[in-house]
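We modelled the chain as a single entity of 419 amino acids. Its sequence is:
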Amino acid sequence: MRAPPRLYALVAAAVLSVVGTALVPTGATASATSASATTTASVAPADAPSKRSMPSKRSMPSMPSKASKASKATEPLRPNAAAPPKLRASGNKLVDENGTTRRLLGVNRSGGEFMCVQGYGIFDGPVDDASVKAIADWEVNAVRIPLNEECWLGLSHIDPAYGGTNYIAAVKALVARLEAHGITPIVELHWSHGTYTGGDSHCPDTAYATCQKPMPNAQYTPAFWTSVAQTFKSDQAVVFDLFNEPFPDRATSDLTAAWKCWRDGGSCPGIDFQVAGMQTLLNAVRAAGAKNLVLIPGVAYSNDLRQWLTYKPNDPAGNLAAAWHTYNFNTCSSESCFNEQLAPVIAQVPFVAGEIGENTCSHGYIDRVMAWLDAKGASYLGWTWNTWDCSSGPSLISDYNGTPTNFGVGLRDHLKGMQ
């Protein structure tokens, strides 16, 4: 989903019924975390957004169906809480260093994409060892960490307390805590720079990374991924997710042009800034010497993968997976659509549903999604491990001890039932 403002995503989703971005609810607590511990949020800088906004998701089906158990043909989610595996693509599966098939099954931990740029801190809520253990107790084996490129790069309008070396240190510390609990960290670019005033724009009055943009930008995003890759290239347990939810197809009615923009970047129809395509970002990662698994999303807020195989970037490391997001209000939200649009992709490459969710505070939709993905041996992560209103987040928990919302019950019970 779009991250902060998350609420704007819910509204946009309801109107468009095709979006797939993670957002943050306005009213969430402003507890911030530094590199090593939770700290008190400071006053936002003068040029930062005045009101803290958060990510939201889409609305979902009403009543929960019974979660189906997945096949136990693969390794348990967290075997002995050992170190997370060094994942690589093998055909259409993810395998570890021993060749054992693995799946990424977990949650998103939103905050790093919006807290810093809004001047409130680095993470939304605690990210200490106790909070990570609470995530692990759900039998989670992967956590996706949304990031902000301006904060990582320490641009001048970001409060230094929350940007640059302090931000990077905080992310590295969270990655280390996750790995200590046997959890695979997925670092992901959520919010990026660039003025965008076209179709489905979310913050047209600023170039700052305060909302979801349709595509990454050539000015800062390759530098972001070069730095992230250099930071984590010696740790192949870390997974890279190149960009949250591209929507170049909202900027132009020419779907072919949108997919070419997605892959190749440059001057794209309807987009005000120079775009960095998925090939450019992948090249930046590999040029930095990182062989880590890379997730690449589709268009339509990562909900449309119909031409993903046609425009798939070239990877000299051969270590790519397709990324998909789904909410009950998306265009592709039925099993018939999954069979038509997703099955051909799943047949050829590893498949990770980086965000699954619904906005009705129930879990009927994700129950169906998980059952379908389980049958395909694919991966998925729920949005989001934050204490927001589950109808506007949606959020999985009501406190950071891991007490589930009605929505979160579906994911928690499903993961625990797979052991």
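As a brief sanity check on the tokenised model: The mean pLDDT is 86. The two ends are 28 Å apart (CA to CA).
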